[in-house]
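In the current project phase, the collection of sequences with tokenised folds has grown. A sample record is quoted in full directly below:
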Amino acid sequence: MKRLLLVLCLAFPGGAQPPVVDTEGLRNSVKTLADDAFQGRAPGLPGGEKAAEYIAEQFKHHGLEPAGEDGSYFQPVPLVGVSTLPTTTFRLITSKGVQDLRLWDDYTVNNQKLRPLEEIDAPIVFVGFGIHAPQYGWDDYKQVDLHGKVALLFVNEPTSEKDDFFRGRALTYAGRWTYKYEETARRGALATLIIHRTDLAAYPWQVVRNSWSSEKAYLEDEAPALQAAAWLQLSVAQQLLAECGHDLDQLYKAAQSRDFQPIQLPARVQAKVVSEVRHFQSRNVLARRPGTDLSEEAVIYSAHYDHLGIRPDQTGDNIYNGALDNASGCAILLELSRIFAGLAVAPRRTVLFIATTAEEQGLLGAAYLALHPPLPVGSLSLDLNFDMVPPLGRPEEITAVGSERTTFGLALEEIAHSLGLTVRPDAHPEAGLYYRMDHFSLAQRGVPGFSVGEGLTFAGHPPDWGQKFAADYTAHHYHQPSDEYHAEWDFSGLSTFVQFAFQLGLRAAQQEKLVQWLPGDEFEAARLKSLP
């Protein structure tokens, strides 16, 4: 403990005393935001607006300056919401017959044209993983023309154990479902059907169903192109391919090769995608602690506050409270804002605190922020994001997937070790977590960033206890109404985590140079372009 206090004292501007973390304040923030009164915090609806107001009130109470538009704490985010209606029909036609699919049970679908009705009658082309990656000598399309057709493909990417081929076990962006829709739309496809496999997607069908059966939002100024962006249940895809004379497992093996050739299937999709479309605004919430001599540069702390809202057609508990996802991250953000606001001497750089909206809709609030930042992107040094930080006691490990890609990686390890924490490598690099959190939207614009979380070992518990908790949460509570606040949660251990997060931001705010990507990183070019 003496070593910890010494490290903290040396790091503070003006030699001030280290902060005392308010663990009961953390508890109250999670309990409040996860309460039924916030109605699952859906963007653009009363519960989401109430959450934004609550966070802004806390920023103001702590003494932070507003950093939004027109002197407020808010940045309006224009969105278009699309809800797929039950009158939607979807059928697969082969020489063996017609298979009428059940919405949400057999498939999910969303209309990216943002229109009330889209009708499709088109042939299906199987395109493997649907990836075009010249840097790896990979092209699943082989000049196939997708105009007027439906693409069928696997989520994820070819299996690799080599770091110079799709980054080994680590999933690249080309393996993400968002990329699949973007790439096939660029190639003129009318619709895209992603085959769901739990091992490849890293989450079960229930997560897909719950994420896509509610309203899906898009940025107002986006130009998405697919008439039908869909997922197919594994068993449905197996039957379709079998009726076309193919075995799904064999096609998966074939798709592992650079020599894979697209397959024009003897099958068609006939669909009517019926949607309710609404234009609305949600809000990011922004506050700042101005810096001193480097105040025109900034370090960002971020966390998304939105979740999945209410499902009126669902019996029983139909409020998706999102206690861990992501009231927990917001609680960390608010506590850090309190600590920085209370510093007697400000750090050199400005520190921005940003609660984003519409993360569950595809990182939309963060994407809008990246396009409309409060300071030029070239002056943003680092984004430290928090998403799902469970209060399970004192962590013995931390995770910061992506920190190793930046010039800040060594500083992070040093701070962790000073607090008795081990930096845990990505336990599941194949899940592509780096591309699934808000920091990714800023990284695409060149801003170094990563999400900071706990590892899997906790003081006073067996080594596998954290792993069991994580597995149970993913299987039974992630994107489920059961992600609720529990009074027995142990918030005391989050004190160490908050101290660690505080030290990260303070170090980045105090150091001489802006944080950069390491040479050769996929985001380096965007960073260099953004610098003055």
